[in-house]
User: Fold this.
Amino acid sequence: MLKQSVFNEIRERHFKTLEQYVPVVARVHGGNHPEFHEVRKLFDTINKKTKEAGSERPELNEEFAKLREITNNYAVPIDVCESYEAVYKMLAEADKAYQS
Assistant:
């Protein structure tokens, strides 16, 4: 249960912000970084599954594995804004909390 509580804490801390940032970053940077559109789809899936699971642990291994692959383990491109960097940092924290 400890795993779930750590993940829930990160979710409470970051998911509302991610809901705001991810669509904006996709719109601003999606042209130069088309992989971010896939990041957006995966975040939307993670968010939906997490909400549907309620207090249960959602099955997110596949989504986080794809995120790590697409983002090269959340490596921030050099030509992006702080919001893009913040999205990757929050997703990486959520991934780590989910895996630990």
Observations:
- Residues 2-99 form one domain.
- The first helix runs from residue 2 to 29.
